[in-house]
Amino acid sequence: MARSFSQEQLRVRPSSKEEAVVQRAREHFERTLIRVRGELAGSVAALEHPRNHQELNYGEIFLRDNVPVMIYLLTQGRFEIVRNFLDLCLDLQSSAYQTRGVFPTSFIEQNGELIADYGQRSIGRITSVDASLWWPVLCWLYVRRSKDWEFGASQKVQRGVQLLLDLVLHPSFEGTPVLFVPDCAFMIDRPMDVWGAPLEVEVLLFGCLRSCCRLMELCQQGSKSRLLEQRLTLTRQWQQDLRIYLLKHYWVTSKTMQVLRRRPTEQYGDHQHENEFNVQPQVIPDWLQDWLENRGGYLIGNMRTGRPDFRFYSLGNSLGCLFGVLAPPQQRALFRLVLHNRHHLMAQMPMRICHPPMENGEWANKTGADPKNWPWSYHNGGHWPSLLWYMGSAILLHERQHPQADVLLMGQMKAMLEECYWSHLNQLPRQQWAEYFDGPTGTWVGAQSRTYQTWTIVGFLLLHHLLRIRPEDVTLINLEEL
Ligand code: GLC
């Protein structure tokens, strides 16, 4: 009783500091917005980075870092900037033969010229698949919120959608609905053994296909185009197949694990489907037992022949809720898992990007001995404040859509979220809105962390908006049919 009383107090704690922190964060955020071709068009990745790293690209507009920026601007009714951003990205959609349809990872205007990175400039020459998959999602969220149907139905947008779909809807050697990608193709953009069909990319693909359908439907009424009809049918089917695939191969609970551990191996032929990927029970890690507890569940990180990746990835799982890959009872199982593993996932600085980290030989082998991805650091078990609002909105959206379901659990989730929000509020201004935090509890500012990182700042503002200002705006992110 005493505990819940103090939590209650925490929740309603009147604080003049809160207002001041939010106000300062808003000012920092304004400074991140930059002009391209004379108009405000998006945010730079970070306001400050060490002088000796001037040549790095944190001064560029990254598509993925601008996801929370654009969603925040939508909540503020600043539609023009979002439209400029979407428009510019379309202008930069690659038309080169080998990358046609790909959106850039980042871009910048230099001496009146637009320079974009499709991977040819990046460290390690990696390409980001997530940037391309995010574009239709952001475009649909913008069109629906601003009611700029004209932009959505414009030839420019529709052409962009078709070019992008060409990258996905084509025959492949595997013949599965997943998109096969190299290592480093998303937010985790350094070697981390996340090649193949990493969760975040596949969930984003699902959101992308959903959004492409909505955008194509805008043109459906007026036109009798058979091509458009065919594309729509194919995209809808692909999206459905993908969801079934993800739930079948990525979703695990304590119950499913007991079945998986006792499956036969070396099965040939297409008549039974018990162990398609020929996974040996020995690859199932020990930590999974406590992690899953009795009633928890989550989407594992990757599925590949013989080598599933059981690591927990926060962003892929949060998006699994927001985009509707997970059914409501599964979302609650995920919330139970987050609550149960709160000391890992939230700890001192919510929230950890990926758990557990790779150590020793595995770290050396799989990351190429990358010092930035040292165990408990950066992508390898580091803590990224920018990730909290994704999980936060998953919780808030669920609560809004299913107010009667498991009130006790949802109450605990809300209390946890509130405490996480307070950790940000109390720590981030002091830590100069750092990019990431290191160590098993996420207490230390990341060894190579930038300060005044845009998505740290705007992620906090978004969570503040959803918790304090307009909770109903969480539906803005909902991709399910209304
Ligand atoms: C780092 C991160 C990447 C982010 C970029 C800009 O490369 O790994 O996810 O987009 O910085 O902030």
Q: How would you describe the overall organization of this protein?
A:
The structure is a single chain. This protein is mainly alpha-helical and 482 residues long. The chain folds into two domains: 37-250, Glycosyltransferase (Alpha/alpha barrel), CATH 1.50.10; 252-263 and 281-302 and 308-482, no CATH class. 48% of the residues lie in helices and 9% in strands. It has helices spanning 2-12, 16-32, 66-75, 79-92, 129-146, 149-153, 155-166, 199-220, 226-249, 254-261, 288-292, 314-322, 328-340, 342-345, 360-367, 388-401, 407-427, 454-469; strands at 33-36, 39-43, 46-48, 61-62, 106-110, 113-117, 251-253, 297-299, 312-313, 354-355, 437-438, 444-445, 451-453. Strands 4-5-6 form a three-stranded antiparallel sheet, with no helix packed on it. Helix 4 (79-92) packs antiparallel against helix 5, helix 7 (155-166) packs across helix 8 and helix 13 (328-340) packs across helix 17. It binds alpha-D-glucopyranose. Alpha-D-glucopyranose (GLC) is lined by residues 45, 62, 64-65, 187, 189.
Q: Which outline best applies?
A: globular
Largest sheet composition? 3 strands, antiparallel
CATH class of the largest domain: Mainly Alpha
Please state the structural category: mainly alpha
Low-confidence stretches: 1-12
Percentage of residues in strands: 5-15%
Widest sheet: strand ordering: 4-5-6
Question: Which compounds are bound in this model?
Answer: alpha-D-glucopyranose
**What would you report as the Rg, rounded to the nearest angstrom?**
22 Å
What's the rounded overall pLDDT mean? 94
Q: Fill in the CATH topology of the largest domain.
A: Glycosyltransferase
Number of helices: 18
CA-CA gap between termini: 40 Å
Number of domains: 2
